[in-house]
Design goal:
7-stranded mixed sheet; 6-stranded antiparallel sheet; 38 strands; 28% strand
Length: 795
């Protein structure tokens, strides 16, 4: 918001400099973005009057004038401005004057006529006002007075950047109140003679949506002169607030907007059809705005309508057909309180961000409307004349915002600020802010003001006390904190290590929503109950995920549709399984999931291009399981899962407890998820992974090792893992190495059988194993395999 320093000092005038005032406002949380002069530097320009104005004998566009500047002699000046005329009060740059740009005025002759100065326009004095000629000063402007002094041009425009919660400072009254509080000075508001009704001018006002418009005031003013000139003092105050002067009625509504922060609007009374109705639009009606643009009003937008049509967007923009123009004689002034939610977002959707909507969507004082209506009426009568009717009000008291009552505790104030502010200062600060304060036991009951929408909780009051007291007045005391070593078990594996292994193996971490499409999830987990959100973001995100599969498969399909032919993703997160035994009715379980699709390796001339298979992801998973230094505790067992391909699905077990699944995606899921080609996925419980076996140092045997290879023939249904586990059990301590290096089916092996080629490494830490020791161990192993699996040695 821009405002004039001199205007502010009319309300409250602290004995501090301009720079100190700007710094003070900034430190109070109302950041000053800039301080600019209202006019450029110039000197030697005084007020004069045109007492003679005649045509130049040798130039059609020039006039020869005589100017009275209050001295003994008249001054001859040649002027080319079209608005130069007899009796006009003007700004005269005398000989020797210096204008902006170091332009010096000298004696001159223009087409043979002497010119002893220059009549100035706003632009020539560095004042940002559009004009077609020289400055036209008021008829009562005193001759010979310096123009800088008369127009108060040694003033500055201060631009304050307000946060959304400080709508109370979007008017001179609020800014003055803030400066008054900071300097402990009383604020002097402007006074005027209250306007009583001089004519009987009733008008029908009906508010259909009182929750959106709790208060609406209207007042008829008749027989005004809209062609009257806006006073120069008002034009200047508006200009210095960044608002261009238009006509006296519009200028007055803009003036009270800047003065009190309350938007107003004036209708041409004779263009309205019947009474005023405040209602929601029907979604199809159109409105031509004051700027000439036609819009279709959305059905959730509040409008001001007469008996025939909508005539304005409530709190945003007026309509062209009912706007004040040069032929207007009677007006209807409106002043209303609109709920912030009724205006918020509506103007931006239509591309109409106005000064009015900026204030209404942040909140205006709901108790201000009568005061502002009287102020605007007085200005209209003083400037444009006319006769005022009575004020008509439609109000719904139950929907008007109420001032909040908050308890401020002394111990909470001291604890939060880390500093003790005397009770008298606390009370004075709050009362100067316009709050009502009642002392209690080590606390205060504070009733806030209606213009402070941002006051809701105790912390808001604490912030206000600290802000006004001055953050720089609070001692800078460093907090004391004790360091506590984290309670971390050496056997715990950090999630960071798991992520690092995945990244090292070419994976990228994915973060998908915990909310999934219930239809897609039902494909992955048919028949399983899921937690459905009562108020979802959308129907496609209305169910809590039962596994990581849904999100990861959706991510794969998304990437493949964007020409990513090699996808390797992993994710950690929670799954949400309905469980009556859980406290909240749902079991939240941390999971780790990963998925691969496409080719095994990036394209390279030295490697054959192969599609990923089950064992590629199983190898990545085993690298992760290797972090536990307990690979023997993990095993894989063939299983079935509704989302995974039969025959290419396995359970992941730790100490014979199922902790997850790995497998190829079932072909029936490829089309719904938009998958292209084979996709392998796994998921396991994260807690079951993040606990490692602590390594124990063991002496390396200094005795030689012996290797024995056997080829066992077993039934095709026998698991190689079961065979290996039995060999480890029988081999006991002498067996230090075991490796399955071949599986064969075909010629030489009976149908329904398979051959497992296994290498056994035998070694002792205390002695060299003799042949009979090795033979005994091998015989025990073969005997156990014969008994357990009917295994025989292959010929």
């Amino acid at each position: 918001m821009k405002f004039s320093e001199s205007w502010l000092r009319e309300w409250v005038n602290p004995s501090i400099s301009r720079d100190a005032l700007s710094h003070q406002i900034t430190m109070a949380g109302l950041e000053v973005d800039g301080v600019d002069p209202v006019a450029a530097d110039f000197s030697g320009v005084i007020i004069g009057e045109v007492v003679e104005c005649g045509q130049h004998p040798d130039a059609d566009k020039l006039r020869v004038t005589k100017i009275n500047v209050g001295g003994d002699e008249l001054i001859d000046i040649v002027c080319g401005a079209p608005n130069c005329r007899l009796g006009l009060k003007v700004a005269v740059a005398m000989v020797g004057a210096v204008l902006p740009g170091d332009f010096k005025i000298k004696k001159a002759k223009l087409r043979g006529q002497p010119s002893m100065g220059m009549l100035c326009s706003y632009g020539e004095l560095g004042i940002d006002i559009e004009s077609d000629g020289i400055i036209e000063l008021p008829a009562d402007a005193p001759l010979g007075v310096n123009v800088r002094e008369f127009l108060q041009l040694d003033d500055a425009i201060i631009d304050v950047d307000l946060t959304a919660n400080r709508a109370d400072c979007l008017g001179m009254a609020g800014l003055a109140r803030e400066v008054g509080v900071l300097n402990r000075q009383a604020v002097t508001e402007p006074t005027w003679q209250a306007v009583g009704a001089t004519i009987d001018a009733p008008y029908s006002i009906n508010v259909v949506s009182p929750d959106l418009c709790p208060r609406y005031l209207g007042r008829v003013v008749k027989n005004i002169n809209v062609k009257a000139a806006t006073p120069l003092w008002m034009q200047e105050k508006l200009r210095r607030s960044g608002i261009r002067s238009i006509d006296p009625i519009v200028d007055i509504t803009n003036y009270v907007l800047i003065e009190f922060g309350q938007p107003m609007h004036a209708f041409d009374l004779n263009t309205l059809n019947g009474g005023i109705t405040v209602r929601l639009a029907d979604g199809v009606e159109k409105l031509t705005l004051l700027d000439g643009n036609e819009i279709t009003i959305p059905n959730d937008t509040l409008v001001i309508a007469d008996d025939k049509q909508a005539v304005a967007l409530a709190g945003v923009f007026g309509g062209e057909s009912t706007g004040v123009n040069e032929n207007t004689q009677d007006i209807l002034l409106e002043c209303a309180f609109f709920a912030p939610l009724a205006i918020m977002g509506k103007s931006r959707r239509l591309g109409l961000h106005t000064d009015a909507s900026h204030r209404f969507e942040r909140g205006v004082d709901p108790e201000l409307q009568h005061k502002v209506m009287d102020r605007a009426t007085r200005l209209v009568l003083d400037i444009c004349g006319g006769e005022a009717g009575q004020v008509i009000e439609a109000v719904s008291a139950e929907h008007l915002p109420k001032a909040a009552t908050i308890t401020l505790r002394r111990n909470k104030l001291d604890k939060t600020l880390g500093h003790h502010i005397p009770d008298s200062d606390v009370v004075e600060i709050l009362e100067r802010l316009g709050f009502n304060v009642k002392a209690a036991n080590d606390s205060w009951q504070v009733t806030t003001a209606t213009y402070r929408f941002d006051m809701a909780i105790e912390e808001d009051l604490i912030e206000e006390v600290a802000r006004i007291y001055g953050y720089n007045n609070i001692p800078n005391t460093a907090p004391q904190a004790a360091l506590t070593m984290p309670d971390h078990k050496e056997a715990d594996i950090s999630l960071k290590r798991v992520r690092s292994v995945f990244v090292a193996r070419g994976f990228q971490e994915a973060v998908t929503y915990s909310f999934v499409d219930p239809k897609m999830q039902n494909i992955v987990h048919p028949g399983e109950e899921a937690m459905i959100l009562p108020n979802p973001i959308s129907i496609e995100m209305s169910a809590m995920r039962l596994s990581m599969f849904t999100g990861l498969l959706t991510a794969v399909g998304y990437n493949q549709s964007r020409q990513q032919n090699r996808v390797r993703l992993f994710e950690t997160g929670l799954r949400f399984v309905p469980d009556a035994q859980a406290d909240s009715g749902v079991r939240q379980q941390a999971m780790l999931g990963a998925v691969i699709s496409g080719v095994q390796n990036e394209e390279h001339w030295s490697m054959e291009s192969k599609t990923v298979d089950f064992f590629d992801l199983k190898g990545d998973l085993e690298a992760i399981l290797g972090l536990t230094v307990a690979a023997s505790e993990f095993s894989f067992k063939g299983a079935t899962h509704p989302a995974l391909h039969p025959g290419q699905c396995a359970e992941i077990l730790r100490n014979n407890r199922v902790i997850g699944y790995i497998g190829a995606i079932h072909p029936s899921l490829e089309k719904p998820f938009g998958l292209n080609g084979k996709t392998i996925v796994f998921e396991l419980e994260l807690d079951a992974l993040l606990h490692a076996r602590l390594p124990l140092a063991q002496a390396v045997s200094k005795f030689p090792a012996n290797r024995r290879d056997i080829a066992l023939v077993v039934d095709e249904a026998v698991s190689a893992t079961d065979v290996m586990n039995l060999i480890r059990k029988v081999g006991e301590n002498q067996l230090v190495g075991l490796n399955l290096f071949d599986v064969y089916q075909g010629k030489g092996v009976e149908p329904g059988k398979k051959s497992l080629a296994i290498a056994l490494t035998l070694q002792d830490t205390t002695r060299t194993l003799e042949e009979k020791d090795i033979t005994e161990t091998m015989d025990s192993v073969l005997s156990a395999l014969k008994t357990e699996f009917n295994a025989s040695l292959r010929d």
